[in-house]
């Protein structure tokens, strides 16, 4: 009787595919989370900024600058942290800026002044900041809208 012959098939190669479905699910969850939290990250006081063509300010993204806002009604706001919506007296802001600058002298200070605020008020604020030890102040503007 003849011996049965078995065919020997070629060895199967491993499948080298990555299942990306779990990654897509994670990405979509993260997208939804970021879409929900992004509007909450925007903070500050609503100020009608003057429109000027200027280069953007170079700043360190890890360092949160001090922003002093001056609204048209003459109220001052110190924007750092969560309490930026409460108006403060100018003397209180100057004292806080002075204390913060003692701990971090390189921290940038920006002024966000409403377009209806007089030049004299901005200069007075800058003079008081200079007296508090602030050597460099940046002014925040918005780019003009092209119609």
Describe the structure.
The protein is an alpha/beta fold and 147 residues long. 33% of the residues lie in helices and 12% in strands. The chain has helices spanning 21-41, 90-103, 119-131, and strands spanning 66-70, 76-79, 109-113, 137-139. Strand 3, helix 3 (119-131) and strand 4 (137-139) form a beta-alpha-beta unit. The longest helix is centred in the N-terminal third of the chain and has 21 residues, at 21-41. The radius of gyration is 29 Å and the shape is elongated.
Compact description:
The chain crosses the membrane at residues 20-42. It is built from 3 helices and 4 strands; from the N terminus they run αββαβαβ.
Just give the CATH class of the domain at 66-139: Alpha Beta
Instruction: Order the strands across the largest sheet as they lie in space.
Output: 2-1-3-4
In the CATH scheme, what's the topology name of the domain at 66-139? Nucleotidyltransferase, domain 5
Could you say which structural class the secondary elements and strand pairing correspond to?
A: alpha/beta
Sketch the major β-sheet.
4 strands, mixed
Protein name: Tol-Pal system protein TolR
Pfam families: ExbD
Subcellular location: Cell inner membrane; Cell membrane
Organism: Marinospirillum insulare
Provide the fold topology:
Elements: H1 21-41, E1 66-70, E2 76-79, H2 90-103, E3 109-113, H3 119-131, E4 137-139
């Amino acid at each position: 009787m003849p011996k049965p012959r078995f065919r020997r098939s070629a060895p199967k190669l491993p499948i080298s595919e990555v299942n990306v479905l779990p990654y897509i699910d994670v990405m979509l969850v993260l997208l939804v989370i970021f879409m929900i939290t992004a509007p909450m990250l925007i903070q500050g006081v609503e100020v009608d900024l003057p429109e000027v063509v200027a280069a953007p300010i170079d700043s360190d993204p890890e360092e949160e600058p001090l922003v002093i806002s001056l609204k048209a009604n003459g109220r001052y706001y110190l924007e750092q942290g969560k309490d930026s919506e409460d108006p403060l007296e100018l003397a209180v802001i100057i004292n806080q800026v002075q204390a913060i600058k003692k701990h971090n002298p390189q921290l940038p200070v920006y002024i966000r002044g409403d377009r209806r605020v007089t030049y004299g008020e901005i200069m007075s604020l800058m003079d008081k900041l200079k007296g508090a030890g602030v050597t460099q102040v940046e002014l925040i503007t918005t780019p003009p809208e092209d119609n």
